């Protein structure tokens, strides 16, 4: 079978043969977008806290949902917040993500600063009891 394929504005005629289906492979797949390969993970799992983390009361912390760079810290220790108030802004993959307060409370500590690199699951804000 012959197919016509357009890549970067050029049209190519390609001969294609039917092949036997292969068994599924549980590895990351590469896709070609434009002329640059993109690596796509086979499956993404839930974000877990770091293995070496000391036990913390999860009701008193806010963790980063993604890995990124802290662009701006909006909250301050001692500040009272309502649900949805912006705590800090992270840049991940050239997009800014607002990290918001999960519930009302008072900030006791912010262990990260502007310019810091954070990992997914890392504690970025601690709340008082």
Verbal overview:
The protein has 2 domains: 2-40, no CATH class; 58-127, OB fold (Dihydrolipoamide Acetyltransferase, E2P). The strands form 4 sheets. A 4-stranded antiparallel β-sheet has the order 5-12-10-7, with no helix packed on it. The protein is elongated, with a radius of gyration of 23 Å. Strand 3 (29-33) and strand 4 (36-40) form a beta hairpin. The protein has 129 residues and is mainly beta. The protein contains no helices and 12 strands.
Distance between the termini: 69 Å
Contiguous helical run count:
0
CATH topology label of the largest domain: OB fold (Dihydrolipoamide Acetyltransferase, E2P)
Question: Could you give the order of strands across the largest sheet?
Answer: 5-12-10-7
β-sheet strand percentage: 35-45%
Structural class category: mainly beta
Overall radius of gyration: 23 Å
How many distinct beta strands?
12
What is the highest CATH level, the class of the largest domain?
Mainly Beta
Main sheet characteristics = 4 strands, antiparallel
Please give the share of residues in helix: under 10%
* Mean pLDDT level: 79
Order of helices and strands: EEEEEEEEEEEE
| CATH architecture heading of the largest domain | Beta Barrel
